[in-house]
């Protein structure tokens, strides 16, 4: 009896030593990863896999010990919506696109029956409109915003949705962290959500899973990017959600040089009114070597990672290349001096010897110099812009009901000073709120678009 007990003890000690030398603990040896209640990304999509080395300090025992994190950049047309499913089965949504843009249906198709976190980066309708449906349809534990209010009905419906969902409501700022299961989202911006520029105050988030890092920019502009850099925030990321749908007013070269993204994904509607993504942004992303995907050309894009490698699974197509013209314009221009034999007479200097003729016109510029705001329903509004003389200019004013059809919002030609102005009447039944205005100028084959907002109150 004593001998049997001693042999059992020796056997137990030997087994423990084997486990210890193999780098595993007892629970690792007998426990398999718990199955997630959510569906896996569609493996029928085309995919590319990228690998990165682990560091010894952060590596689990083997790659097989790690479950996958998946991030879904949902095609919601001209808007943003992102689904995150963590290795431990937690789920979060960042923005929801416009109302009825398909975000809710996508979540349902992936078997999402509960959301641990919803983030509204800023209160524009193309980011929070679809969240209203989600809040009214799926249980939500926590809702995070930057705390900046606006006066639109969409924002009011969003707040009503938060109340109806009985979700915990949290306002965040730079330096805060948002837990999501075993992972953490770091808040890089804003510092204070004040002022009239809702895009500038977008919540910017960074998420790391071992060696793979994501950066979600919302609609943050170049000024917000510069502020993040000046604060010394860590921005380097493998996967970049491009700011403001690929607008030229975000994704500045200095910022991208610090992020160093391997992959950049923008969310935009096909043939949208804003010209997103802008050629300048695509060129800037190409200059830092990023593979670029867009929901307009690739549909929903899913990134799956185990923390060491990541797999790109667009619904369709391949990464898009940079626009040829935009890429060449980003290269430094060297002075061109024609050979001496081109000078006809030494006594008569030729201007072309130092100033060669340009094969392309000067870059088209556009600046919105003034807009009437606030405006009462039934009153007149005006907008003035400055561009190149002779440029063809158009304007669109977007209300809750859609584009305005008011008289005065016609295509015009900029005068000899490059000035163009519009005046229109705001309808007496116009819903109070902040409404978007889009101005476009075209000349010599170039087109440029700028947008602003005015308030009806």
Description:
Helix 4 (125-135) packs parallel to helix 5 (153-165). The protein is built from ten helices and 24 strands. It has helices at 2-21, 26-30, 103-109, 125-135, 153-165, 222-230, 253-259, 279-287, 295-298, 324-329, and strands at residues 48-51, 69-73, 81-85, 91-96, 117-119, 142-145, 168-171, 177-180, 183-189, 204-209, 212-216, 239-241, 263-266, 291-294, 301-305, 309-314, 366-371, 380-387, 392-399, 402-403, 412-413, 419-425, 433-443, 446-456. By secondary structure, it is α+β, with helices and mostly antiparallel strands. It folds into two domains: 44-53 and 65-327, Metallo-beta-lactamase, Chain A, CATH 3.60.15; 366-456, Immunoglobulin-like. The strands form four sheets. The protein has a nine-stranded mixed beta sheet with strand order 1-16-15-2-3-4-5-6-7. It has a seven-stranded mixed beta sheet with strand order 8-9-10-11-12-13-14. The radius of gyration is 27 Å and the shape is globular. Helices cover 20% and strands 28% of the residues.
């Amino acid at each position: 009896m004593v001998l049997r007990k001693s042999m059992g003890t020796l056997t137990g000690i030997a087994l423990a030593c084997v486990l210890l030398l193999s780098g595993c603990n007892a629970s690792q040896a007998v426990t398999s990863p718990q199955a997630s209640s959510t569906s896996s990304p569609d493996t029928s999509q085309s995919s590319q896999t990228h690998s990165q080395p682990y560091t010894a300090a952060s590596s689990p025992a083997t790659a097989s010990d790690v479950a996958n994190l998946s991030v879904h950049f949902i095609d919601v047309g001209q808007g943003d919506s992102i689904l995150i499913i963590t290795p431990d089965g937690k789920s979060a949504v960042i923005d929801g696109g416009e109302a009825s843009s398909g975000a809710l249906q996508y979540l349902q198709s992936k078997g999402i029956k509960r959301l641990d976190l919803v983030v509204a980066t800023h209160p524009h309708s193309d980011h929070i409109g679809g969240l209203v449906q989600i809040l009214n349809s799926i249980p939500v534990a926590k809702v995070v915003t930057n705390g900046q209010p606006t006066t639109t009905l969409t924002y009011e419906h969003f707040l009503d949705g938060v109340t109806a969902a009985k979700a915990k409501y949290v306002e965040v700022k730079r330096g805060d962290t948002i837990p999501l299961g075993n992972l953490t989202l770091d808040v890089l911006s804003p510092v204070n959500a004040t002022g009239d520029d809702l895009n500038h105050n977008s919540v910017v988030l960074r998420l790391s899973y071992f060696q793979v890092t994501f950066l979600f920019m919302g609609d943050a502009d170049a000024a917000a990017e510069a502020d993040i850099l000046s604060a010394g925030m860590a921005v380097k990321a493998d996967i970049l959600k491009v700011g403001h749908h690929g607008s030229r007013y975000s994704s500045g070269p200095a910022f991208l040089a610090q992020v160093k993204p391997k992959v950049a994904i923008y969310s935009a509607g096909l043939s949208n009114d804003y010209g997103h993504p802008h050629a300048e942004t695509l060129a800037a992303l190409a200059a830092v070597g990023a593979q670029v995907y867009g929901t307009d050309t690739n549909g929903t894009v899913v990134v799956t990672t185990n923390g060491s490698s990541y797999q790109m699974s667009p619904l369709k197509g391949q990464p898009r290349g940079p626009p040829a013209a935009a890429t060449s314009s980003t290269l430094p221009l060297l002075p061109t001096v024609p050979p001496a034999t081109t000078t006809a007479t030494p006594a008569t200097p030729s201007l072309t010897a130092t100033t060669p003729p340009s094969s392309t016109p000067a870059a088209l510029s556009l600046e919105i110099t003034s807009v009437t705001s606030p405006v009462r329903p039934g009153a007149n509004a005006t907008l003035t812009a400055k561009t190149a003389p002779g440029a063809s200019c158009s304007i669109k004013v977007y209300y809750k009901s859609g584009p305005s059809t008011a008289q005065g919002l016609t295509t015009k030609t900029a005068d000899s000073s490059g000035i163009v102005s519009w005046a229109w009447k705001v309808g007496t039944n116009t819903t109070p709120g902040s409404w978007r205005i889009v101005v476009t100028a075209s000349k010599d084959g170039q087109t440029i678009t700028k947008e602003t907002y005015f308030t009806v109150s």
